[in-house]
């Protein structure tokens, strides 16, 4: 993420659009949150796919930068674990990616308002997992 945050451009670092006036201070082209998302969603999968990072290693997972929370993640967490689910369940970037995947695989295709969702019915029978905050 630090490398992505260091990207600079003489025009776009001071101007937000073609018709915009230049700003007195230079701004980052890629902020820390966006750099984290690019690292988690683009760089890391590419490293694993090309064999530069072993997929069974956990070292890379611990070094992932935080990613911005979104409504899909919050809704899926609430649906699976209830309104009192601790936010620590979705703090790690891989868990957030998992929530998005569950939403894509189950929530978008289930039009029964969750009443017949096989994942939700199975999850309702399981104890709430314990995760480190």
Observed structural traits:
single chain; 133 residues; mainly alpha; 6 helices
Alpha-carbon distance between the termini?
23 Å
Rounded mean pLDDT score? 79
Range of strand content:
under 5%
Question: What are the segments in which pLDDT stays under 50 over at least 5 consecutive residues?
Answer: none
Rg result: 19 Å
Describe the structure.
This protein is mostly helical. It is 44% helix and 0% strand. The chain is built from six helices and no strands. It has helices at 2-5, 32-49, 59-62, 71-81, 93-107, 118-124. Helix 4 crosses helix 5. The radius of gyration is 19 Å and the shape is extended. 11% of the residues are buried. The mean pLDDT is 79.
List the helices and strands and how they pair.
Elements: H1 2-5, H2 32-49, H3 59-62, H4 71-81, H5 93-107, H6 118-124
Helix pairs in contact: 4-5
């Amino acid at each position: 993420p630090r490398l992505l945050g260091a990207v600079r451009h003489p025009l776009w670092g001071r101007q937000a659009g073609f018709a915009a006036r230049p700003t007195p201070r230079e701004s980052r082209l890629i902020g820390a949150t966006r750099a984290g998302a690019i690292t988690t969603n683009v760089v890391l999968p590419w490293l694993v796919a090309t064999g530069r990072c072993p997929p069974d290693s956990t070292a890379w997972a611990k070094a992932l930068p935080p990613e911005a929370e979104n409504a899909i993640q919050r809704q899926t967490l609430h649906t699976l674990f209830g309104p009192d689910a601790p936010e620590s369940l979705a703090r790690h970037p891989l868990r957030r990616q998992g929530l998005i995947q569950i939403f894509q695989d189950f929530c978008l295709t289930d039009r029964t308002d969750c009443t017949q969702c096989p994942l939700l019915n199975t999850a309702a029978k399981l104890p709430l997992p314990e995760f480190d905050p």
